[in-house]
Structures are given as structure tokens and as C-alpha cells.
Design goal:
There is one protein chain. This protein has 237 residues and is an alpha+beta fold. Helix content is 45%, strand content 15%. β3 and β4 form a beta hairpin. α4 crosses α8. It binds fe (ii) ion (FE2). Its cofactor is Mn(2+).
Length: 237
């Protein structure tokens, strides 16, 4: 299943119910369904982003790293269900970090795959229309925005993400960073991710080694601005 347009609503497309848990008479008035997530197919081949991102990186990143976030999130969900049914509050609290980390990893990577597009299919083509205008308005130019995202991504200590976000309240574009696998929503419920760049070493190290700035500089040749424009227009126009 190729992922379609991803929003807070449609991110639920990767979820499936796994049957209703029985009510155990522990104060829960109704039974609940366990919702697990699945690894989405990529909308392009693993080698389609070469030479910017190698097929080896894409395959490992998708099949191993993203799959691990999916598996670990689903396991945590099952444990959470069990803990809730037992009324084990300590376990419920303990599971929150695994749910945040692995659920965030699934959300972030599901967006990231949509943010990339082979150059021969329009990857790297600059944004036009409403988003192109907004970029010029809020950052003066696309070049300034790219420099800002590259600088903040390069300066990020440890692992994390750099985002082009839409603030739904002010209707302004913002550059934000998140640590680890924190999704953008942890910076505020009003932020909508238009573009997220993975700056974990697993995203570039096999090809770029320790030269993260080169990865950040080159990734713009495969950025799917059309997708970012669609998300922007869906929220603003
Ligand atoms: Fe990643």
C-alpha cells in the first residue's frame, strides 16, 4: 500500500484494529480495540533517489529502521493494553517513553518518505503557488530557508529532525528541530509538518560518513515540494 497524502487525520491509515479486548470489570466501561501500525510501501524504488541517497541506505532505513519502530510500537501497544486491563498504572506510565519514541519514529518516517521524490520525477523542483509565495514572505527566499534548515540540522546535537512547519494559528512558516524521534506535534499542536529531514546518522552515514552538511546540502535535489505544497494548501487555502 503506497501512502497517500499524510495529515494528522490520514496518518491513521496505517493503523488497523486487532479485535476488541474484553472488558474485565476493572472500572473500564467499555471494551477497546487495539490499533497497530504497518510499514508503508515507499512510493518509489530504493535506488530511485541515487546518487543523492544510495539504494543501500534507503533499503536499510525502510526495511530495518522504520520496521523496528513499527514492531516496537505495536509491542508497546499490546503491553499497554494488558497494563490498562490490569489497572497497572506503573506499567502504563513506564510504557509512555517507548510509545513516544517508536510511535514518533513511525510518524516521522511515514512523512519523510513522502518528502522525497526522484529528481527525474520532479524531486528538487522549487515550490510554486501559495507555498512558494509564503516561503518568500516568511524567509525572503527559498535559498534563505534552505540555509536555515541546513544550519539548524547541522547544529543538532545527537539524533533528531529538522522541520519546515506551518503554524496553523498564525499561518506562518517556521523552522523547528526535534530531538530523537519526537514528532513535530511535541513542539505544539498547532504545528503541521510540511517537510521533515531525518538527521539521524542512519539516514546518511553509509554514504556521507561524518559529513552531515553534504547530506543536508544534497538532499534538496530530491525534496518533494509538491507534497509540501499540497499539505500547505490543504491547511491554509
Ligand atoms: Fe530515520
Amino acid at each position: 500500500m503506497a501512502l497517500g497524502f499524510l495529515t494528522a487525520k490520514t496518518l491513521g491509515l496505517g493503523f488497523r484494529a486487532r479485535g476488541a479486548a474484553p472488558a474485565l470489570g476493572l472500572g473500564f466501561g467499555q471494551s477497546r480495540s487495539l490499533h497497530t501500525v504497518e510499514l508503508p510501501d515507499l512510493p518509489y524504488d530504493y535506488a530511485a533517489l541515487e546518487p543523492t541517497i544510495s539504494a543501500e541506505i534507503m533499503q536499510l532505513h525502510h526495511q530495518k529502521h522504520h520496521q523496528a519502530y513499527v514492531n516496537n510500537y505495536n509491542t508497546a501497544q499490546e503491553q499497554l493494553e494488558e497494563a490498562l486491563n490490569k489497572g497497572d498504572v506503573s506499567k502504563v506510565v513506564h510504557l509512555q517513553s517507548a510509545i513516544k519514541f517508536n510511535g514518533g519514529g513511525h510518524i516521522n518516517h511515514s512523512i519523510f518518505w513522502q518528502n522525497l521524490k526522484p529528481s527525474k520525477e520532479g524531486g528538487g523542483d522549487p515550490p510554486h503557488g501559495a507555498l512558494g509565495w509564503a516561503v518568500d514572505q516568511d524567509f525572503r527566499s527559498l535559498e534563505v530557508l534552505i540555509q536555515k534548515m541546513n544550519a539548524e540540522g547541522a547544529a543538532l546535537q545527537g539524533s533528531g529532525w529538522v522541520w519546515l512547519a506551518l503554524d496553523k494559528e498564525s499561518k506562518k512558516l517556521r523552522v523547528e528541530t526535534t530531538a530523537n524521534q519526537d514528532p513535530l506535534v511535541t513542539k505544539g499542536a498547532n504545528f503541521v509538518p510540511l517537510l521533515g529531514i531525518d538527521v539521524w546518522e542512519h539516514a546518511y552515514y553509509l554514504q556521507y560518513k561524518n559529513v552531515k552538511p553534504d547530506y543536508l546540502k544534497n538532499i534538496w535535489t530530491v525534496i518533494n515540494w509538491k507534497y509540501a505544497s499540497q499539505v500547505y494548501e490543504n491547511e491554509v487555502v
